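Box 3.1. Reading complex inputs
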Amino acid sequence: MDKMPKWADVVLIPLISLVLAAILSALVILAIGENPIEAVNLMVTGALGSTYGWGYTLYYATNFMFTGLAVAVAFHARLFNIGGEGQAMLGGLGVAMVCLYIDWPHWSIALLAACVGSALFGAMWAAIPAYLQAKRGSHIVITTIMFNFIAAAFLNYMLVNVMRPQGSQDPATARFPEAVHLPTFQSMFSTAENALFRGAPANISFFVALLACVAVWALIWRTRLGYEIRAYGHSETGAVYAGISPVRITIIAMLISGGLAGMMAINNVMGEAERLVLNSTEGAGFIGIAVALMGRSHPFGVFLAAILFGFLYQGGAELALWTSIPRELIVVIQALVILFTGALDNMVRMPLEKLFLSLRKGAQ
Amino acid sequence: MEAFVTLIQVLDSTIRLATPLLLACLAGLYSERAGIFDIGLEGKMLMSAFFSAAVAAVTGSVWLGLLAGIGASLILSALHGVASITFRGNQLISGVAINFLASGLTVLVAQSWFQQGGRTPSLFGGGRFEPINFPFADALSSVPVIGPIYSELLSGHSILVYVAFLMVPLTWWILYRTRFGLRLRAVGENPAAVDTAGVSVVGLRFAAVAICGVLCGIAGAYLATALQAGFVKEMTAGRGFIALAALIFAKWRPWHAMGACLLFGLLQAIALRFQNIDLGGVIIPVQVMDALPYILTVVILAGFVGKAVPPRAGGEPYVKER
């Protein structure tokens, strides 16, 4: 018997966790001598009050959708992929190679190729930890953390020693050619008399991220492989008994996860920066953890959580611009969300379960 | 002779750089030996680095700073304990949250206290741990070979360096020669057995997590008040994770932990001094040095060179049977 109705598990618990995180964040803002209500007002107008704000919010949300989905897919196989950051860095390398070393006639073909390239590079970076977990039993959390650092060093090497254009001091690649520049929301939605999303980085990869959400939903709940991944995540012994190979599922789930994290690069590298720079991921790989936890590993939940974090990021940038609250406030909020929805889940869950049980007893 | 001087300088810098790693590594050792995985070492060090530097800057006393740092780190430890022991949450996720919490809060509080872009004012005088000079260090420094080793390498570090290295035999003794140590190791392998023997699993684990907090606190304070003079944003720079790597490299044993931390400290010292290394035509880029601790750890984890087996009950919350 379930202790709680399903809606409470899916909606109520994340909501309560979010409220707790918000209350604590408000206390933090109070403690540093600012007004939390004013701060929220500023964040809302800055992030959602104009198409410019929305353009940034959706740009960040696109990043977080990819990394959130990456973490979510791994969660379904009960794997904790903390290496989204490194996989996204390598994805950026894949995008840069596709865009710089091949002449593309049109951005649409280049985008397809960049999707493949970034997913391949991201998956490749997840493949070694996956293999080590599946075959050698090395803990995937530790190996993926190590691979984040190795990725950072590798990218640093590639940018400084290999891909940096001659005569440039900046550790970055050359700018991508005009032909591979992706259409931004500004060019897609603006009319002659009414410019929308002016100067905002949101671009067509937002729709690729939406497609990825749908694809992950179909994969997890509508295919045999998805069923196997969920079965393995639910009970390893049960899955083995049903003839599901743990090695195969671990490796496949991690490849998909790494591929999704890598695909983030079509947004931040190809869509926004239009060249590969150091630290292009800006921690988005880690935000994926918060997004997946908040979204309960469901693609629709990930979508909503990604929009929420997109709003927080853009709102936080506005706060840093207009008040003395630094951008790091968002990192604190992110930590609180991870804490309440992830580690302290039982703290919210246990009293709720008791409440529902007593309600049920009262009804009988 | 010049090569010898360089060697001494590199080794001297190795000891300085290995100290925070060693303290954090031993911190993780207590926690993980008791069955509580801790990937929040980095966050605890960072928190302590900030609060030790901030309090030292305000009061002018480095000892008060050290206390504040340990206190801040202990608070995060308590959070980790509540999440992973009391509420049986996921220890890894709790660690991730603690790292972010520290990374955000330190800058936030630093900005609101000092308005210097997320750093503390520079420490001087009593706000820093001064090097301790051994007796006759100056007099002996001109003696060939032994002189520089004594006066440069062994003498002239801050007290926390000696504390860190003394913690190694102490940890060994506690773990392998005391009742508490036996129970601590047992609770990481088979908590049910410890519980059956009438010893509190929760109490032991909280004790281990608290020791971990104290050591991380000292590590952070060392970074901000001895190695450098003040706190800067993200100053731990992944040291908590290198310490974690060293812990695995050492297979959760104290003496080996010292060896691993000295090795990783040496790599940092070499990377700091030489940048790209030219080995007779083959150039080793500095990034290889940066990545080497992590690569070595992955190799060890993969079990190709001696398998690293973590404590058996590590990461599993203990549920008493009813």
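In summary: Chain B touches chain A through 47 residues (CB under 8 Å).
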